[in-house]
Amino acid sequence: MTIQTVATTPFAGQRPGTSGLRKKVTEFQQPGYLENFVESIFLTLGAGKCRHLVVGGDGRYFNREAIQTILRMAAAHGVERVLVGRGGIMSTPAVSCVIRKHACYGGIVLSASHNPGGIDGDFGIKYNTENGGPAPEKITDAIYEHTKTLSEYHISDAAPVDLDQLGTTRIENMTIEVIDPVLDYAELMKRLFDFDAIRALFASGFRMRFDAMHAVSGPYAKAVLEGILGAPAGTVVNGEPQEDFGGGHPDPNPVNAAELIAAMAGPDAPDFGAASDGDGDRNMIVGRGIAVTPSDSLAIIAANATVAPGYKGGITGIARSMPTSTAADRVAQALGISCFETPTGWKYFGNLMDANLATLCGEESYGTGSFHIREKDGLWAVLFWLNLLAVRKLSVEQIVREHWARFGRNYYSRHDYEAVDATAANAMMDALRERLPELAGQTLDGHHVSQADDFAYNDPVDGSTSTRQGIRIVMSDGSRIVLRLSGTGTEGATVRLYLERYEADSTRHDLDTQEALSGLAQVAENVSGLRRRTGRSEPTVVT
Ligand code: G16
Q1: How much distance in Å is there from the Cα of 530 to the middle of ligand 1?
Q2: 314 C-alpha to ligand 1 centroid (Å)
Q3: Backbone angle region of 119, left / alpha / beta, with phi > 0 → left and psi within -120 to 50 → alpha
Q4: Which of 357, 370, 454, 499 makes an SS bond possible with 517, Cβ 3.0 to 4.6 Å?
């Protein structure tokens, strides 16, 4: 075995987005493309700094190949020990858990999350720091700077490692430990939730359907739900991870998990339904005939946090991304704790959790989590709901309605315009940005605009500032219109329009969501010209 120095030239566009570098598989397959990015990670970390590393991916197409390359490069950069999930598979929350438990320097996560996989699908890579969370902007910016000037990378010429057998092997001076990807994670969940109560719930005949969407959560959900908690075999469906997610789109929302929504609406619907995404960090919670919005799920978890043993002392604060509905803010106010509003991207929650300012975090994009790790955590959210249902002995719908009756209902929807022309999308955002000063104070279709700005975040922990994080038009009645460009798409631009309307009156909590928001949708079109400028007559996806 020898360490090779290979000449290379920079690839344009290796700037990490909302969550690492996400591109088409074919782009990653170009010789040197992955290597350049990985070299830039190691250059950013500094020679000899990274001694212990975790490497795991969601098992999508190109995962195995990428892991072998990363292992050979880690060995060339003086890493002493790497933990890898069996088969190269580890969910994103499990990587975060393993980094923290084994006091690793950091981790490399291979995933394009909820984006489709397969040879024509997407791939992704991101670096997580020693707190187990996605690297903050100062690190991702530094990685990007290296990608622009790279002239060589370093790699061992060692043969591929067997990733399917648990145990230890070596490349150069580096030890590779292939570990069971589920064990540490399951042990952490046991400490957070009342497993006896959940076991008793299943023993009483409670029925659940967990749709793993042919992705990485399958083995975790089977081990925890069907194994430890005694849920009947077959509770977990689509539970075998596949390289192309069975040809599906592993995004747990009512559109992409339509099969689950249909099952939960049928005459023989189970009591509880849930789904998670490609890398296991997202979740959708479904009751009989009702899909819980992610924003409501965060608020309900916060309002009921003390039912779970891991949170019985109460929560210190809540954090939500700016486009997420303000339902959690109302809970925070009632509890007398802070609710932080951050830019989109789980990386912005890390400092707040490290400083113990926020215990629970959530995003409208089907992400919920807590300070137990530094990633959002799909199965964690599902276990929280199971714990809640076991203790309260109410249905999902009853819990949601009770919450709305107490705090009011935040009607909420996201309209995505995918793969639109990037120039048109940017021009639309620029034109709207210019109009913001004149919007404040205006009345738009009966809504008085109390604030109109391009969201900027000042991190209260490290003092850093992130600007241009999305345009928000806030009405004095609590309604909001938010527009931003996605940072995870891989084709053209994806424009996200978020609509929110607050309704305190419980006799008005039964409106159809899209009808309740149609007036605001029209206001959004009038001020932005989104459809006109992008040439689209309707959104690609509505959630
Ligand atoms: C990532 C981020 C989330 C973000 C989501 C959507 O999730 O971790 O914080 O909300 O993307 O981002 P965007 O609106 O920019 O596309 P995941 O599950 O894809 O890693």
Answers
A1: 22
A2: 28
A3: alpha
A4: 499
Closest atom of ligand 1 to CA, residue 111: 20
> Where in the chain are the domains?
3-181, 185-407, 409-542
pLDDT digits (tens, 9 = 90+) for 276-318: 999 999 999 999 999 999 999 999 999 999 999 999 999 999 9
Angle 404-409-414 from CA coordinates, rounded to 5°? 135
Quickly list DSSP for 54-73. Answer: EEEE---TTHHHHHHHHHHH
Band of residue 395 on the pLDDT scale cut at 50, 70, 90: very high
Q: Please say whether the beta carbons of 112 and 69 come within 8 A.
A: no
Residue 240 and residue 218: Cα distance in Å, rounded?
A: 6
| Residues belonging to the active site | 113
What CATH class does 185-407 carry? alpha beta
Ligand 1 midpoint to CA 416 (Å): 13
Looking at the predicted structure, is the pLDDT value of residue 505 above 90?
yes
CATH of domain 409-542: 3.30.310.50
Instruction: Return all residues near 257 (Cβ < 8 A) that are at least 6 apart.
Output: 211, 213, 251, 275, 284
All residues at 6 or more sequence positions from 531 whose CB lies less than 8 Å from its CB, including other chains = 525, 537, 538
**Does the pTM of the predicted model rise above 0.90?**
yes
Whether the CB of 365 sits within 6 Å of ligand 1:
yes
> DSSP label at 24?
E
Q: Is the pLDDT of residue 489 over 90?
A: no
Q: Does residue 18's CB lie within 6 angstroms of at least one atom of ligand 1?
A: yes
Q: Which fold has domain 3-181?
A: Alpha-D-Glucose-1,6-Bisphosphate; Chain A, domain 3 (3.40.120)
Over residues 357-364, the mean pLDDT reads: 98
Reading the block at residue 21, the tokens are: 């570098």
Task: Give the count of beta carbons closer than 10 Å to the beta carbon of residue 30.
Answer: 12
What pLDDT, on the 0 to 100 scale, is given for residue 401? 97
